[in-house]
Amino acid sequence: MKLVFPGGEHAPVDLAEGTTTIGSDAGCGVVVVGTGIAPHHCEIALSSGTAVVRATDSAPTVLNGRQIEGETAVKEGDLLLFGRVGCQVNASDRKVAAVAPVMRAAPEDDGRTRVRTALPRFLLRGVSGATFGKTFAVTDNAVIGRQPDCDIPVPAEEVSRNHARLKVTPDGVRVEDMGSANGTYINGKRVESGLLKPGEELRLDTVRFLLVTPGMDAKQQSAGARVEPAPPPVAEKSSSTTLWIVIGVVAVALVAFAVLHSLGKI
């Protein structure tokens, strides 16, 4: 099998029997440097003509538009995406020009062929619970839930089997609750349907995600978060309570004085 990088990020790679590591680290078998590429991004194991891809870092690896979890089989014609770098899986004896079914010529044909790869517009980054530290590519109409076959699987009991559906829009991700038991929240507000913008938080009961875009820095990620209103100052309430206690004590003292005076004790 061969990996072909239409963007020129790497020369075509003939996969040898065994395991080939792909990432930005200089020690990887295939060194690819670009936005969203982890040091040891993933690895492809080839045995007797059969290949599987394994994600080895928290950065997303996408196969034919769907982010992989664990080990997934790959075959000729598949499209792989590492961060924002795409490649196609070809047969070793096939020339690059033979991938015409997924190619589109440039507006002014300069003789080269290019493969169109679907780059993720948005990413969900886990910030709590079972998905902490993991990043998921958001594809249109992706389902997030507890079932392993969900587009974004979340192995947590408080998450419903099919919890919410995600729809990609130009401004963000439209989140639609799918009748979950514990609810879907955007920035702390429960929604049946709502727009999640970059930098904002998606919460499925206690499991929280942050919506980001590739290349977003930490300051930009937090810029869109809505601030919860602060509770009223505790000190003011305490002062009011103390005042009423003092008034009560004075009233009791006055009544006691009047009673003792009428009895001739004072």
Structure description:
Mean pLDDT is 79; it is low at 94-106 and 223-230. The chain is mainly beta. It has helices spanning 218-223, 234-262; strands at 2-4, 13-14, 18-23, 30-31, 42-47, 50-55, 61-63, 66-67, 71-74, 79-82, 85-90, 122-126, 135-138, 142-145, 152-153, 164-168, 173-177, 184-186, 189-190, 193-196, 201-204, 207-212. Helices cover 13% and strands 33% of the residues. The protein starts with a strand and ends with a helix.
How would you concisely characterize the structure shown here?
The chain has helices spanning 218-223, 234-262; strands at residues 2-4, 13-14, 18-23, 30-31, 42-47, 50-55, 61-63, 66-67, 71-74, 79-82, 85-90, 122-126, 135-138, 142-145, 152-153, 164-168, 173-177, 184-186, 189-190, 193-196, 201-204, 207-212. It is mainly beta and 266 residues long. A six-stranded antiparallel β-sheet has the order 2-1-11-10-7-8, with no helix packed on it. It has a six-stranded antiparallel β-sheet with strand order 13-12-22-21-18-19, with no helix packed on it. The chain has a five-stranded mixed β-sheet with strand order 4-3-5-6-9, with no helix packed on it.
